Amino acid sequence: MTPSRIHRLSLTHFRNYRAASVQVRGDVVVLVGPNGAGKTNCLEAISFLSPGRGLRRATLEDVADNQGDGSWAVSAEVEGALGLATLGTGIDAPGAEPSSSSRRCRIDREPVSSATAFGDHLRMVWLTPAMDGLFLGAASERRRFFDRLVLAIDSEHSSRVSALERSLRSRNRLLEVRNYDDHWCDAIERETAELAVAVAATRGQTVTRLAAMLQERGAASAFPSAQIMLDGWMENALTSESATAVEDRYREILCANRARDAAAGRTLDGPHLTDLQVVYAPKNMPARDASTGEQKALLIGLVLAHATLVAEMTGIVPLLLLDEVVAHLDPVRRKALFGELAKLGAQVWMTGADPAAFVDIGTGGEIFDVESGQVRRRT
C-alpha cells in the first residue's frame, strides 16, 4: 500500500499565515503552541488539498488573510499513489480575471478541473474538536460526517451529493409555481432519482464495509468498537433490490408527493435525510447515551477503523489530521493511540498545546512550534 505523505507545505495569505513553509521528514508531525497561534489553521490548509470546503467547511473568502489582498494559496510537495507531485489550490485577488471566487487547483503547476483530481495522489481523514458533539447533534451533521468518510474512499462522491442537492433545489423551485408543468417535474424527478440511488448505493457499500472493519478490530483495539448503520430506506433497500427497482420506486414517491412537498417547500423523502446510527458496542447502547469520554474514544476508534478501510479499499494509506485529539486522553490511551497510528503506517499531523503530551510519539515523529503564523522545528 502507498502512504500519503507531505514533504513540504507552503501557505500564502492563508488565515494568519502571511507566508510560511514547513518541511517535514517524520511520520508523525506535531504542531504545538498556544491557542490562536495557527495550529488548526495549518491542518485546515492541508484539508483543502482534498475535495470540499476543508475541515471547518469555510467559504473560500473566509480563509484569506485579512491583512492581504483577498487571495490565498496552499501548495504541498507530496508523495502518494502516483509518486512525487506538487498539489496547489487557492483563489486570486478580487478583480482578477477570471472571477476571484473561483477556486483554482493545480497538479505539478498544470490546471485541473477540480480538487477531485487530488484524490488520485492522496487521501485524507480528519478528526476535530467540532466533531465531539456528533452523536448528540443533528442528523445533518452525522450525514455530512459520513459523506466525508465515503469521500475518502470514492473521490467522486462529493460531486454526486452536490448534484443531488442541486436537483432537489430545482424540483423545489418548480413546485413553488402554482401551475407547474408535469412534464418538467417528470424530467427533474428522473434525474433526482438517478442521482439519489448513486449516492445511496455508495453510502450503503461503505457502511457495510466499515461495520465489518469495526467488528474485526473489536477487542484488539484500545478504543471501543461501534455498531453502525444508516437510517435511510433507500440505502437499506439497495442491499436486496436492484438499483433500477429502487430508482423507479423513488420516482413514484416523488410524483405522488408533489402536493405535500410543495406545501412544505422542500422534498420530504430521500437520501438527503438519511441519518447515521451509532451504537457503543461495549455497553450495547446508543452512542448519544454514552459519557463524553466514551463518545470521544468511540469517535477515535471509528476514525482509525475508517483509515484502515480506506487503505484496504484504495491501496492508499490516508493522511490523518488529528486536531487536539490527545488533550483529553489519559496517558495509557495516548500511548495506545500512538501505537495504533504507527501500525497504520500513515503520516499523521497532530496539534496540541502541551508538548509533554507527545513524549511517546517515537523516533519517527517531529515537533514544530507554532506562534503568530510561523512554524519552526523544535530543536
Automatic annotation (TrEMBL):
The keyword Cytoplasm applies. Keywords: ATP-binding, Cytoplasm, DNA damage, DNA repair, DNA replication, DNA-binding, Nucleotide-binding, SOS response. One of its GO terms (molecular function) is single-stranded DNA binding. The keyword DNA repair applies. Pfam families: SMC_N. ATP binds at residues 33-40. It is found in: Cytoplasm. GO terms for biological process: DNA replication; DNA synthesis involved in DNA repair; double-strand break repair; SOS response. One of its GO terms (cellular component) is cytoplasm. Its main location: cytoplasm. Residues 6-350 form the RecF/RecN/SMC N-terminal domain. NCBIfam families: recf. The RecF protein is involved in DNA metabolism; it is required for DNA replication and normal SOS inducibility. RecF binds preferentially to single-stranded, linear DNA. It also seems to bind ATP. Belongs to the RecF family. This is DNA replication and repair protein RecF. It comes from Bradyrhizobium archetypum.
